[in-house]
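Q: I'm building a small set of examples for a reading group on sequence design. Run inverse folding on the following structure and report the sequence directly after it, with nothing in between.
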């Protein structure tokens, strides 16, 4: 029987695992809300807002060091009203105060600790602070007492500073007006895309893959842009950058060599030592990159068969990791897994030679350790992060240094070690379901179902879509009839109004699922979400989508996020969604909104293209000749398989099994002939003659005209 907790605060009533982790701190935490700010006003106290997320290693460190310390908690409770925020649930709050911290300190990160006036205006902030002075950093108690003293002695100065800062935050939140655009996006897109490609080429690490130095983050959106650039221009160096990076990542420690899936990032430049948390959004985006590389490598003339198998294996292992570890019984995908277990970062994932020998026996262990860089000295704090020490670079057609990595013997060893690892104490899993991140993974499973010809993955995608539509999408109020998305779901309860990324990412996943399944209700729902985006988030004055809806809780700043970070911006994905919907429905209005988003972002993209990978991919789509493909016939036919065999990003697809009320106009009048499936390839609704053979379809799809 568990002993009663000494402390319990208001976070005990929350559903966020991150907030619940702090529910028994001696700190008198409040969730973000009116109650806390009213208390601050009535007691004339400043507000401490501490922001983090469940899988954040340093968030746990600061909790254990400071927020669980009764002496430090007493200081917080005496001088401040304390608010805890899960940044994954409230990215709107996080974005405002992250901008402030970055603007005033030059850097940001989590945990983030910001001091506010009772009117929510920030006046001081930072990230992690130790419990005692360390490495030139002041201690957390010193920070607390300095702020408390300043609030009492220099209140007017702090408030004037806060007002000035508010002006800067509002300036940062603004974007150029679309009306200010002096160039035609279509005419300027080629130059913009070429400039972006050159920027990536200049900063590319040709030896280790990736861009820049340590730490290195997976940049799936940038990789997708480069793949599309290669497809349109034929420039081999664009493809090579993606292949090298994908190979180095998948051979490094950032990739879980036993269980599949990618960790958040690498602390070094060679992808060896990761920050061990696993995030749903990283894996969703990377799955699609490896699927696309599989398509490309199996279709290139003279390609090495083992190269395509390598990319396929990584995609499948990551999909299986998600299905095994991150998929809830109801069909929703969980958010993340921690870096830590048993209080140590990475403990679950690392090995010693003796541990491996105990599982495999001496002879097999020696072979395994040779392949996976396991030594007595270790490569991480005396233990070993598994990685493929020889890499997987294909030296010449028909040969590879790592042919053995796909051998049955090594595969069997990995299975045995994975089973042994499953007996360890696992890292904590954040089991809240976020709409936006589920949209990303929905798209990954839907596309995997088509590329890998997998009914199982299609079923996962359909169950996920149905779950999100049933549990997180509400019918909408009687005034506008638009659907209303909730941000988060856990334990049967959905809450918090959705943001632009929730609408856009879910619509994106539903479009992908429609293209693969042919079930038109998913396209219908995507269109409804697009209409809701326009009605709820569109900036009528300057163009682009606000991060929050027009009926959202009023905060000190209404941001319009256009940068692609760890996840794509809502504006980038919205533009991509609207461009495709305009093709499905022949609706120029959708295209105009998309082009306006691009115009709003245009100058920032020109100056810093590496912050705009997803929208660059959308611009590639808008700048290409789009094939409108309709395949009429039963699922699984040879035409459908040909359609998804190669990497063909510049297309929209309707698969028609039987007519429904939700079929898009591009499907009108297109049916099988004499029971045989037929494919129609069109451009701007002007169609070539229908074909019934896979080779004929391939010719039409790959034709330049």
């Amino acid at each position: 029987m568990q002993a009663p907790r000494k402390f319990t605060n208001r976070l005990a009533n929350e559903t966020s695992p991150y907030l619940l982790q702090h529910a028994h701190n001696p700190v008198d935490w409040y969730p973000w809300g009116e109650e806390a700010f009213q208390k601050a006003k009535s007691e004339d106290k400043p507000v401490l807002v501490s922001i983090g997320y469940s899988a954040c290693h340093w968030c746990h460190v600061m909790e254990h060091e400071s927020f669980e310390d009764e002496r430090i908690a007493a200081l917080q409770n005496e001088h401040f009203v304390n608010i805890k925020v899960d940044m994954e649930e409230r990215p709107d709050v996080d974005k405002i105060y992250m901008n402030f911290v970055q603007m005033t300190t030059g850097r940001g990160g989590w945990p983030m600790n910001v001091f506010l006036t009772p009117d929510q205006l920030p006046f001081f902030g930072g990230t992690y602070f130790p419990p005692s002075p360390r490495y030139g950093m002041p201690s957390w108690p010193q920070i607390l007492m300095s702020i408390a003293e300043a609030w009492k002695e220099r209140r007017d100065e702090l408030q004037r500073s806060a007002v000035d800062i508010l002006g800067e935050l509002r300036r940062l939140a603004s974007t150029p007006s679309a009306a200010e655009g002096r160039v035609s996006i279509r005419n300027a897109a080629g130059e913009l895309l070429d400039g972006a490609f050159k920027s990536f080429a200049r900063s590319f690490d040709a030896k280790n893959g990736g861009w820049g130095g340590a730490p290195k983050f997976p940049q799936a959106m940038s990789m997708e842009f480069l793949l599309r650039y290669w497809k349109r221009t034929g420039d081999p160096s664009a493809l090579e950058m993606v292949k090298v990076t994908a190979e180095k990542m998948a051979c490094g420690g950032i990739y879980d060599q036993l269980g599949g899936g990618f960790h958040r990032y690498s602390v070094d430049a060679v992808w060896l030592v990761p920050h061990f948390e696993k995030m749903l959004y990283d894996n969703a985006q990377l799955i699609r990159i490896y699927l696309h590389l599989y398509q490309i490598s199996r279709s290139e003339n003279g390609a090495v068969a083992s190269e395509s198998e390598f990319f396929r294996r990584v995609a499948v292992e990551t999909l299986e990791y998600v299905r095994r570890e991150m998929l809830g019984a109801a069909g929703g995908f969980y958010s993340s897994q921690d870096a830590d277990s048993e209080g140590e970062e990475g403990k679950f994932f690392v090995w010693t030679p003796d541990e491996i020998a105990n599982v495999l026996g001496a002879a097999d262990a020696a072979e395994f350790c040779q392949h996976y860089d396991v030594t007595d000295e270790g490569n991480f704090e005396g233990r070993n992060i598994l990685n493929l020490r020889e890499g997987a670079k294909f030296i010449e057609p028909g040969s590879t240094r790592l042919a053995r990595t796909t051998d049955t013997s090594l595969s069997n060893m990995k299975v045995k070690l994975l089973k042994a690892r499953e007996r360890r104490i696992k890292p904590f899993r954040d089991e809240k379901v976020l709409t936006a991140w589920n949209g990303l993974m929905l798209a990954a499973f839907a596309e995997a179902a088509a590329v890998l010809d997998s009914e199982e993955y299609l079923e996962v995608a359909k169950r996920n879509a149905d779950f999100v539509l049933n549990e997180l999408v509400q019918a909408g109020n009687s005034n506008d009839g638009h659907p209303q998305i909730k941000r988060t779901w856990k334990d049967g309860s959905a809450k918090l109004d959705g943001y632009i990324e929730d609408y856009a990412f879910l619509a994106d996943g539903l479009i992908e699922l429609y293209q693969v399944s042919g079930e038109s209700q998913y396209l219908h729902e995507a269109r409804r979400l697009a209409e809701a985006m326009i009605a709820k988030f569109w900036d009528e004055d300057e163009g682009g989508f606000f991060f929050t809806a027009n009926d959202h809780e009023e905060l000190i700043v209404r941001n319009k996020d256009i940068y692609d970070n760890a996840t794509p911006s809502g504006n980038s994905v919205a533009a991509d969604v609207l461009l495709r919907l305009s093709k499905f429905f022949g609706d120029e209005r959708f295209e105009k909104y998309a082009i306006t988003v691009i115009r709003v972002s245009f100058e920032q993209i020109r100056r810093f293209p590496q912050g705009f990978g997803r929208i660059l991919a959308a611009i590639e789509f808008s700048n290409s000749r789009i094939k409108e493909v309709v395949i009429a016939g039963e699922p699984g036919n040879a035409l459908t398989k040909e359609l998804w065999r190669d990497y063909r990003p510049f297309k929209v697809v309707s698969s028609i099994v039987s007519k429904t009320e939700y079929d898009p106009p591009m499907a009108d009048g297109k049916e099988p002939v004499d029971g045989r499936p037929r494919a129609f390839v069109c451009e701007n609704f002007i169609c070539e003659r229908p074909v019934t053979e896979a080779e004929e379809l391939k010719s039409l799809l790959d034709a330049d005209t």
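Residues 86 and 503 are 20 Å apart (CA to CA).
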